[in-house]
Amino acid sequence: MTLRLKLFVLIAGAIFFATSGVTAMALWREVIRGQELLAREGVAIASTAATAAAQWLGPGGPEAGAPQALPAVLDRLMRSTPLDRAWVVDRSGTVIACASRTGETCPDGFPPSEFQSADWPLQALKRLVNPEGIIARAPVLRGGEVVGAVCVDFSHEEVIGAARDLAVGASLVGFFWITLGLIMAGLFIRQVTKPVVDLIEAAGHLAEEKGVQLEEPRDRELAELVHAFNQMSRRLEERRHENQRLIAELEERVEQKTREVLRADRLATLGGIAAGLAHEMGNTCNVIRGYASVAERELPAGHPNRDDVLAIRRETVRAAAMLERFLVFASARDSKAHPQAVEPVLREAVEVVGPAAAQARVERVVEITGELPLVVADSGLLRQAFLNLCINAVHAMGSQGGGTLTARARADGHEVVIEVSDTGPGLSPEVARHIFEPFYTTKADGTGLGLAIVRQAVEAHGGTVVVESQPGQGATFRIRLPAAGPGAGGQPPEEALP
Questions:
Q1: Contact 458, 466 (CB under 8 A)
Q2: With 60 as the cut, is the pLDDT of residue 309 above it?
Q3: Is the distance from CB of 480 to CB of 412 less than 8 angstroms?
Q4: In a domain, 59, yes or no
Q5: Strands, DSSP E only, in 91-240?
Q6: Which structural domain range is residue 321 located in?
């Protein structure tokens, strides 16, 4: 049998199962309907007795002669109908007269009404399980007023017994079809799913075993699936060795990166120690410079040791300046950024290098194109970055007898672009690649921290800095800073105001 035929048989069994359920539900509704008809018949029977009982009941209760007349009315009713009990109650629900074939007492406590409440859905099932008949009531009316009620109870075996037999038959039919459907479903599902289960178990073993191969079943569709699985298993086996080789390479790379991270961590620790040492050495240099200044003032102009003291003071100043620049690069001071304009900071940096530019015969030019948006920046960090670029440009052009320093600023979309250009000797490609690295310098007395501080300051503001240069054609350092968002003002934070 093919898989399609098995599924067809399975669906047919499900249809039979559903049909038996529908049949059982139809029979069950017939049981309920039969009990509803019996209840209506009981109301009609009780109504005939209620007409006769109306002569002996009044608003105040039973009248004279009612204790003798009402039992006779109930006896006639019991002889003409298959009832177990019949009784009459007054308007408060108290039993006045009762007739019973089984000897059971008649219940009271049910005040009469013109309408009888409907059975709840499971009441019919309760009557089938427990020996309980159908109780029907009819009001006793006198002068348009309810003064009592006649209640009747159908015999359980005479009426409910037939309904129970019908329900039992329907249940047996439903149970037979349900059992048959489950057996058929279990057999065919096992035949359909067994190859699939084997396939799932084999797939679970693929990660542990090599070259898992399954026997192809007779069903064409499942045979194609198993054939595809076997091909996949062979391809996985072929790639297993390739994966093992890649894993070995990755482990080697991870080990290498781990060594690099550990080395970087040691360097970071060493950097912190170096920063603290530089701070202490800076304090020592300041003390030496102070004593050297005092000694210089106290020595007369022609003293033979005056030149030595001047050399001590000069080298101490140089060492202190180098340590200070190192601390500026290594420190991570808190940013005091707030929305502000770039133009005043740029003009101030160009103005500060004025004396050095005049001495090196360098002309200064500031070009601001259009209206610049505000940037969220720390003015101190930006001023240091711009000042370092201007100083480097002046030094580069001073070595060749002068030139032009040009500082430009313009808006470019959501960024502010600042360019510092010079007409100096330019940079070679090799120097340009390493120009922003710490301690890389081409000057004999340089520290290699000026441009590293520039990059650190720009990146702290979320910007970028690049250099464009060719040997003999000057250099241009281009900084891009993100513009402040909408609504940003130009005032510093509240805590920064005087």
A1: no
A2: yes
A3: yes
A4: yes
A5: 95-100, 135-142, 145-154
A6: 214-331
Measured CA distances, 313 to 143, 277, 284, 294, 296 (Å): 134, 21, 13, 10, 9
Neighbours of 212 (CB within 10 A): 20
In this structure, the answer to whether residues 134 and 71 fall within a common structural domain is yes
Q: Which of 272, 307, 331 is the last residue of a domain?
A: 331
Tell whether the torsion through CA atoms of 387, 416, 479 and 429 is positive or negative.
negative
Q: Which of 98-102, 169-173, 375-379, 440-444 has the lowest mean pLDDT?
A: 440-444
Backbone angles phi, psi at 3, to 5 degrees: -65, -35
Q: Is the dihedral of CA 378, 379, 381, 386 positive or negative?
A: positive
Q: Residues 435, 348: one domain?
A: yes
pLDDT tens sequence across 358-380: 888 889 999 988 888 898 888 87
Token pair recorded at residue 135: 């109780």
User: In this structure, how many other beta carbons lie within 10 angstroms of the beta carbon of residue 174?
Assistant: 19
Distance of CA 46 to the CA centre of its chain: 69
Structure tokens at 96: 């006045």
Do 327 and 437 lie in one domain? The reply is no
Q: Are 112 and 93 in contact (CB under 8 A)?
A: yes
Domain count within the chain: 3
CB 81 within 8 A of CB 172: no
Query: Does residue 421 sit in the same domain as residue 464?
Result: yes
Phi, psi of 400 (to 5 degrees): -115, 15
Structural domain includes residue 494: no
